[in-house]
Amino acid sequence: MKLIDCIDRIPTCLSSILSVYENPETLCEELFKQCYKKMHIIGSGTSYNAGLVAQYFLAAQACIPCDVFLPNEFKHNFNYYNFSADDLFIFVSQGGSTKLVYENLLLAKQKGYTTLALTENINGPIAESADYCIDMYTGHEEFIYRTIGYSCTSLILCMLGLNLSYSDKAHIQPYFADAHAVISNLDRIKHIAFDWFQINGARFLANSKFVVIGDGILYPLSKEINLKFLEMIPKVSSSYELEEVIHGPQNSFDNDTCFFILSSGQDTDKVGKISKFIATEISNNVVIIGPSTTPSVELNCCDKFFYFLEVACFAQYIAYWFAELNKRDLTQPIYSNLNSYISKTL
After folding, report:
1. Can you tell me the distance from the alpha carbon of 90 to that of 43, in angstroms, rounded to the nearest whole number?
2. DSSP states of 264-292 as a string?
3. Are the beta carbons of 242 and 270 closer than 8 angstroms?
4. N or C: which terminal CB in the chain sees fewer CB atoms within 10 Å?
5. Angle of the 45-61 helix axis to the 218-232 helix axis, nearest 10
6. Strand-pair partners of 66
7. Separation between Cα atoms, residue 209 and residue 230, nearest integer Å
8. Do 186 and 10 meet the contact criterion of CB atoms below 8 Å apart?
C-alpha cells in the first residue's frame, strides 16, 4: 500500500459524503433542528487548513458566520471571545484523540456551549465527549500525511454550513450538482498532474525551497499545500496570499526557489504579472495552476463552487510524486521519537 492509494480513494469518499448530506437529518436530526448564530471550528494542521477553506466558502455562499481557531489560540484566548449560547462549536480531529482539541471541547462544554465532533474515530474520546458526532467518511486513512482527511473535512464543513443556513433543499441542490461534477473530474486532474510532473518534477525538486501563492479561496488552500510539501517531500516551504507576496516576502526569494501560483480566476492579470516578475527576475521554476493571462496549467475546472478540491487534488498527487522522487519513506515520520518528548494525542 502506498499513499497514492489514499489519494485515489478521495472521489469515493467524497461521493459518500454527498449521498449523506443530501438528507443531513439522517446524520444528527437534533443538530439540524436548532438555529445557530455562528460556527466555530477548532482543529490543528490539516484540520485547521480545511476549516480555513470552509470559512472562505461559507462567507460567500452561506448566511452563517464562521470562525476558525488553532487549539492553542482558542484555549488561551477563550475568555476574551464574545461567544453566544446559540453558537455551534465544531472540534475537528481525524484520529479523534488530539489532546488539546479534546481539552478545548471540555472547556466549551463546561460553559454550556453546543459541541460537535468531526472525526474518523467515532468511538474516540473527542467523539464520545461531544454533544454530537459526525463521521468524517475517510474510513481509516493509513498514512499520517492526510490527503483524504483534508478533502473530506473541507467538503463536510462546507455542506454542514449550507445545511445550517438554508432549510430549503432546492436552494442547496446546485451545490450538490457542482460537487458531483468535481468528483467526476478528479481522475482527469490526476492525469494532468502526472503529465506536468513528468516534464517538470525533477527540475523543481532540484530547488531547496518551495513557495505556494494563492488568491481568493485558494489562499487558504495554499497553506495546506505548503504543509504537504513540508512534511511529505520534505522541503522548506512557505505560503502567501497573491497580493502579499509582492511586499516583504519577495525580498527573500532567489533562484533556488520554485513557485506555485494558484489562480482562482478572480485576478488573472495580477497573476500573470507576478508570474512574469518571478520568471524574469528570480527563477524560471514557476508554474501557474488555473486561469491566467500568461501560460498556465489549466485544469479546466468544470464547477463553480468547489474547484478548490480539484486544485487540491493536483497538489496532492504532485506532493506524493515529489516525495517518491526524493526517496522519502512516507510510512515513517522523520522524527519518530517525538512522542518521547511531547505527545499530541491522549
Report:
1. 9
2. -SS-HHHHHHHHHHHHHHT-S-EEEES--
3. yes
4. N
5. 170
6. 39
7. 10
8. yes
Residue with cell 461534477: 181
Low-confidence ranges of the chain (pLDDT < 70): 302-303
CB 262, CB 289: distance < 8 Å: yes
pLDDT of 247: 97
Please tell me the number of Cα atoms within 13 Å of 163 on its side-chain side: 22
Q: What is the pTM of this model?
A: 0.97
Q: Which of 50, 87, 86 is nearest to 70 (CA)?
A: 50
pLDDT tens per residue across span 272-289: 999 999 999 999 999 999
**Nine-digit cell string for 131:** 454533544
Strand partners, 324: none
CB 157 within 8 A of CB 308: no
| Closest of 234, 214, 96, 88 to residue 153, by C-alpha | 96
CA torsion through residues 308, 24, 118, 63, sign: positive
Cα–Cα distance between 19 and 25 in angstroms, integer? 12
Q: How far apart are CA 281 and CA 258, in angstroms?
A: 13
Taking Cα atoms as reference points, which of 314, 311, 262, 252 lies closest to residue 283? Answer: 252
Per the CB < 8 A criterion, the answer to whether 200 and 208 are in contact is no
Give me the pLDDT at residue 303, please: 67
Cβ 283 vs Cβ 233: under 8 Å: no
Q: What percent of the chain has pLDDT over 90?
A: 91
Let me know the angle formed at the C-alpha of 309 by 114 and 62, rounded to the nearest 5 degrees: 45
Angle at 33 between CA 170 and CA 90, to 5 degrees: 95
Element (H, E) at 186: helix 169-205
CB 36 within 8 A of CB 87: yes
CA distance 339 to 187: 37
Q: What is the mean pLDDT of the chain?
A: 95
CA distance 317 to 182: 16
Query: Angle 308-311-314 (CA atoms, 0-180°, nearest 5)?
Result: 150
Q: Which of 61, 240, 27, 21 is nearest to 152 (CA)?
A: 21
